[in-house]
Amino acid sequence: MGKIFVTKPSIPDYEEYCEEIKSIWETMHITNFGPQYQKFVKAIKDRYNYENVDFQCNGHMSLQNILSCLEPGEIITTPFTFISTTLAIKNAGHTPVFCDIKEDDYNIDPDKIEALITDKTVAIVPVHVYGSPCEVEKIQAIADKYNLKVVYDAAHAFNVKYKGEDIGCFGDASMFSLHATKVFNSIEGGMIVSKTKEMLDEVISRSNFGISDALTVYDGVNSKMNEFSASMGLVNLRYLDKNIEKRKKITEKYDELLESVEGIKLLKRRDDVVYNYAYYPVLIEKDGVDGGDLLNYLEKSDVYARRYFYPAANEMPLFKGMGDTPIAYNASLNMVCLPIYADLTDQEVQMISDLVKKFFQ
User: Fold this and answer.
1) Burial degree of 195 (CB within 10 A; 0-12, 13-18, 19+)
2) pLDDT tens, 182-229?
3) What number of other Cβ atoms are within 10 A of residue 270's Cβ?
4) Which is it for the CA torsion 89, 201, 176, 195, positive or negative?
5) CA angle 105, 107, 110 (to 5 degrees)
6) What's the predicted TM-score (pTM) here?
7) Which of 116, 176, 292, 327 is most buried when burial is the number of CB atoms within 10 A of its CB?
8) Residue 24 phi/psi, 5° resolution?
9) Separation CA 245–CA 250 (nearest Å)
């Protein structure tokens, strides 16, 4: 059967991609907001009804550039995320303040945010962990009360809807990762959706050396999306719905096979959310066993699951000891994401599930 990794990128047929990039040889425009970039922006706007959209070289720089638009200060965020979230906050000149998470969906706990707000707080950066939406209404109410910005790390949440509305429509801005490991990819890339054109214009300027009207007015970087990545995004967009439907069936198969296994907790899904099935996390709830034990057991059978996210951000050397977040700490030790991608077969899902069952027996 061969090695099974936690994910595998979805890529189109070679010929179809070649057809899409053919025009690049005609225009000789390979970066700097070229025709393929513009075409990609239009395709996303048409599909999702976004007003303000930009694409950059990756999700990390997209988030950092959004946060660079804010006055330096403290930003309340979650430690249960990939370290990119925290580094984007730090690299944009802010101080991360870690808030613990909820036990049901592993997202930031809104009931614990207010106690962390000070006169230095400028924003909240929640993460839609595993593509499961945060409690956006509660978070926005807190932000409105204290005049804070809300910037969502929506890296996992492309195409997710909450109560019929696209998840990118909440907060002041959202960042989506288009990395090869995600449900929808542009090889590498990041997508920014902002509430205002003013913020979008500044973010775009910051991605291009801070240039505005031929003058550098911001402390900018170079994080523009190139034409080849935009082209991959355009082609992959044609297959997004099909790939998500495949992921949904895989998720349902896992649920069927694992729901009765004692010692693990599956992610609960809500009726008011349209998911993208980006990850299949299981939380180990058995004494004397943690996520590393299950990983080692699966690897003996060439199944390479991952601990997302281990260690928690405030257990990393750079941020060690910042905040008391016991729920996040427990999740980081005991969460394992099983392999899921569009081409994973029923036979492979059955095999992985059987291994999980045997481990807990």
Assistant:
1) middle
2) 999 999 999 999 999 999 999 999 999 999 999 999 999 999 999 999
3) 12
4) positive
5) 115
6) 0.97
7) 176
8) -65, -35
9) 9
User: Per-residue confidence at 6, pLDDT binned at 50, 70, 90?
Assistant: very high
Q: What is the pLDDT of residues 42-66, one digit of tens each?
A: 999 999 999 999 999 999 999 999 9
Could you give phi then psi for residue 200, rounded to 5 degrees? -60, -45
Report residue 199 as tokens: 């913020």
Give, in order, the Cα–Cα distances in Å from 163 to each of 45, 137, 151, 273: 20, 11, 19, 6
Find the helix packing angle between 326-334 and 291-299, rounded to 10°. Answer: 10
Using N-to-C axis directions, what is the helix angle for 346-360 and 291-299, rounded to 10°? Answer: 130
- 1: pLDDT strictly greater than 90: no
Confirm if 58 and 177 have CB atoms less than 8 A apart.
yes
Q: Would the CA dihedral through 193, 194, 196, 202 be positive or negative?
A: negative
Judge contact between 275 and 349, C-beta under 8 A: no
pLDDT at 94: 98
Q: pLDDT (tens digit, 9 = 90+) per residue, 78-127? A: 999 999 999 999 999 999 999 999 999 999 999 999 999 999 999 999 99
Q: Which residues are registered as beta bridge partners of 19?
A: none
DSSP state of 71: P
* Alpha carbon separation from 108 to 93, 105, 138, 273 (Å, rounded): 22, 9, 11, 17
Amino acid at 314: N
